[in-house]
Every structure is written in C-alpha cells, then in structure tokens.
UniProtKB/TrEMBL annotation:
Entry protein name: Phosphatidic acid phosphatase type 2/haloperoxidase domain-containing protein
Limits of the Phosphatidic acid phosphatase type 2/haloperoxidase domain: 97-212
InterPro entries cross-referenced by the UniProt entry: PAP2/HPO (IPR000326), PAP2/HPO_sf (IPR036938)
Pfam families: PAP2
TM region(s), chain numbering: 14-35, 73-92, 99-121, 141-163, 170-191, 197-218
Keywords associated with the record: Membrane, Transmembrane, Transmembrane helix
Originating species: Phycicoccus elongatus Lp2
C-alpha cells in the first residue's frame, strides 16, 4: 500500500513537471512563431522600442559605458564560471550532491537550448542607423536574458531553504532586479528586441522550475528535498 502511494505521489509530481515544461515551451514557441511570421503588431512594437531605447542611450555616454560594462560582466560564460563554483560549494561544503548536480546539469542544458533556438528561429539582430553596440549571431531568444534568468532561478531555489521569510523576499527582489537589468541592457544597447528578452526570461525561468519539479517528483515522498521549501516548519507534537 505504501509502495502504491509513493508511486502515485511520484507520478503526480512528474506529470506536474512535464505540464510545466510544456506550458513554457508553448509560450516560447508562440512568440517564436510570431517572430518568424513577422507579425505586424509585434514587429512595430519591437522596432519602436529599439528606436526609442537606442536614442536615449546615444544621448548619454555615461549610460552607454555602464551598459557596455554590464554586457561584459553578464556574459553567460562569466555567469557559469561563478555558478560552477557555487555548485562545487553545495556539493563539497554542504554535502548536497543531488542539488549540486541538478543545478549544474540544468544550467548547461538551458545554456545550450537557448543557443539551439537561435539557429532554429534565425532572427536577425535589430538594425539601427547609428548603432550603440554590436553583437554577433542571431537575436531570438536573448542568450544574456535566458542565462540570467536560469542563474537567478537556480540561485533562488538553492538559497530558499537557508532563509526565512524576510531573507526570501530580499532574495526574490535581488534576483528579479538582476534579470530585469540584463533585459534592459540588451534593449537599450539595441542588440535585442523586447520580444527576444521576454522569450529568454520565459525560457530560463520555466526550464529551471520544470526541472526542479521533475527533481522533486523523481525523489521518494520522504526524501529531504520535499521539505526543502519549508525548512523552518515546526513538526506537529
């Protein structure tokens, strides 16, 4: 009876993870379809935002320098060097091997998936008469935005069990601010359209959350990971 209950519990969680992944895939695919078909309202919104954003940046040299510096700092390779060190710390210092491997594999999968999608959609970078910055490759989705969202979501999930309510609120605000700053950086430098960064964030956050639900679903119901979201909950007497 206990085995049947555990199997049903695992099945429900795995179905939830798959459903979450499919929902994210559907949203990103919809945006990609509109981009590929050059859906006029989306194109006009994207082009107008790029013209306004780059004009604003062009008139402010200090802002342009700050955006270019942030672009370099938030290169995916830099983010993942730091996060690889974090995964090693989780593995060696906190002795959470499963979490460490989950975080590392999920991040590498997300990084490569964003790259593959660029070649599937093949959207050209924004064309600006007087460009603020240049970036190689295709535009959709934004790799910077996707990887920032991946890293931020992984950090939130890793740190969540270690914090109480106030710390969690601060963590969420810092993570959201980080992702938003990367998205704005891409648009105000004129190297990505708003739809590119939106799809990147959806892909990054959605992939990590679906992966997390899958990890929980694969573990037995009494596994410590199932209590990780409520580590300070008091047991009933």
């Amino acid at each position: 009876m206990a085995t049947t209950s555990a199997t049903a519990h695992r099945a429900r969680r795995l179905v939830r993870a798959i459903a979450s992944g499919l929902a994210v895939a559907l949203l990103v695919t919809l945006i990609a379809f509109l981009v590929r078909e050059k859906f006029d309202p989306l194109v006009r919104l994207d082009e107008g935002a790029i013209r306004t954003a780059t004009a604003y940046t062009r008139e402010r040299p200090a802002l342009r320098s700050a955006l270019l510096a942030w672009q370099e700092i938030t290169q995916p390779i830099h983010l993942y060097i730091v996060m690889t060190a974090v995964c090693l710390w989780v593995w060696l210092a906190r002795r959470r091997t499963t979490l460490a491997w989950w975080a590392f594999v999920t991040m590498m999968l997300g990084w490569n998936l964003a790259l593959v999608l660029k070649y599937v959609v093949q959207r050209a970078r924004p064309v600006v008469d007087d460009p603020v910055s240049h970036s190689p490759g295709y535009s959709f989705p934004s790799g910077h935005a996707a990887n920032a969202a991946i890293v931020a979501t992984v950090v939130v999930l890793l740190c969540w069990p270690l914090l109480r309510r106030g710390g969690r609120v601060i963590l969420l605000v810092v993570a959201a601010t980080f992702v938003l700053s990367v998205c704005l950086d891409r648009v105000f430098l004129g190297v990505h359209y708003p739809s590119d960064v939106t799809a990147g964030v959806l892909l990054g956050c959605g992939l990590v959350l679906a992966s997390w639900l899958g990890l929980l679903g694969w573990q037995p119901p009494d596994h410590p990971l199932h209590d990780s979201l409520h580590p300070h909950r008091k047991e009933a007497p």
